[in-house]
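User: Transport permease protein. Structure?
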Amino acid sequence: MSNHFAGDSAVLLGRSLRHIIRSVDTIITTTLTPIAMLLLFTYVFGGAINSGSESYVTYLLPGILLITIASGIAYTAFRLFLDMKGGIFERFQSMPIARSAVLWAHVLTSVIANLISVAVVVLVAFAMGFRTSAGPLAWLAVLGILVLFTLALTWIAVIPGLTAKSADGASAFSYPLVFLPFVSSAFVPTGTMPGPVRAFAEHQPVTSIVNTIRDLFAERPVGSGIWTALAWCVGILVVAYFFANVIYRRKIS
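Assistant: Predicted structure:
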């Protein structure tokens, strides 16, 4: 096995990125679908929702960014599944490259692709009236949270990518992740929800992450909420990374 992990990962990363560029449907789904949701909820439902003193597009954007990432990581599982079934993993094992570089190439591809989709969604939101008083440090904090969230979901995506029996099964796991923001503070304040739903919404990871990003955009004190959001992201990332690597080692042993 090669010790040049960084170099091997970079080469395989280039391979994965070329696959995305050639896949038009991937670009359309991961970028246009969240934009369509942003337009729909802002211009169709936004007038009926009380988002306080800020515009609804400003209130809505953090949740749409998480949905953008959740929908994008389905393609990580799908591409990983195709590599597994296509025999490319066996071919890589016969070559003098770091075995972990194969997984990390897919993970880094997910981070890059999702951050591009997020940037496009933010630009569209600005065109729709999104405004923020956030300074450079607040933007960096938002970026850091989104990268952590992407890494956490991507390592979750690695697991079905390695274990699924079909291409549909590999990507279907993301559906609950896409719909999780709908039962959170992403679209409406949790105080408007009935008791049991409110309890779930206020104690699931999306709400703490959305609220933290919303406070950072508004330059409001984030308090302990940012630590809750980071704890969710890091906790999910560590658990998913552990199980994904255990499964990967069994697959290639």
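The two ends are 14 Å apart (CA to CA). The mean pLDDT is 85.
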